[in-house]
Amino acid sequence: MAKFVLAGRADCPYYAKAELLADYLQKNLPDFRIHKITQHPDVWEEWLKDLCKKNRWSHNKSPIVWRELLDRGGKGLLLGGYNEFLEHAQLYYGVTSSMTTELMKSVAQENLGTHIEKELEKESLKGLVNPLQVWITSASSLACYHLIPILTSGEVFGPQMEISINLFDNKHTEEKLISHKQEAEDLASPYLRSVSICTQAEEAFHGAHVIIILDDHVDKEIYSLEDCIRSRAPLCQLYGSLIEKNADNFAKIIVGGKTFVNLKTALLMKYAPTFARNIIAVALGVEGQAKAALARKLKITPSCQFGIPKGIVFSMPVKFENGTWVVLTDLKNTEISQQVMTRMANDLIQVMSE
After folding, report:
1. Does pTM surpass 0.70?
2. Among 128, 140, 205, 255, which is least packed by CB within 10 angstroms?
């Protein structure tokens, strides 16, 4: 299967001629596939520059043609421009194009009109579909930076749902918020409609469908429960009143972080009583620490330790499955038996004792 991508300026006559030839090849050759991309003349140069930079290509004219290496999983193979595509078609398929210059220009103008119509239609359809409004507090934090790609992956809210991310933090963090905004836009996720910044408290959570409360900034360590409540209560009271005032009636609130997660959840339930049933605490970090402490007390090792003595470190056998790394805890799926691993561990202990 030969899959080619033909991209060009919407009003380019040479793109029009290459497009006609590509359509002919796709119609008459069962193993030839073409994917066409048009860009408005105003954005074509910038789009081409970004494409070439991403793939380390050198090309500066319209159109550009490359071949997708479907069976290799690598980046596309640049074929070239209009002349190179015609030479390729003639050399490999014995086909050429006889389109006249007048017809090329006429088709190019039609392509531009069609492209503009499609863009307008796409924008109108976007206006009919309201994206999910996702608000993130303490958005200048590193946790937010790592959270954004997860939210825009299409796996959290579903592949049919577009989202708009709103980054909320105080005025002093505006520079970091702008950086996070640019990083999110660079992801070019099809599920991300827009990214906005909010540093004014009275505007926070406006129309929010999902609110993610991350750890707030703490200037000093807090030792007593009384100090903890005193430091968190005003902020949670502010968040609660803003949620009651601005959020969607069915908004869901997720409270995450490393410290005082349950306390913040309780305070939010107090100050945003209308949404009390829609507030959930995600304390996986605290839960993991508690489990680890219990395991150490009970001297229990995880099932994935394979019976390795304490103080010995082995690389975990893994396999790549469904886009993620999976640890093989079942020795039946590995080529190393328990006896071999025990012998290797004993050898390591002997070396360490020498």
Report:
1. no
2. 128
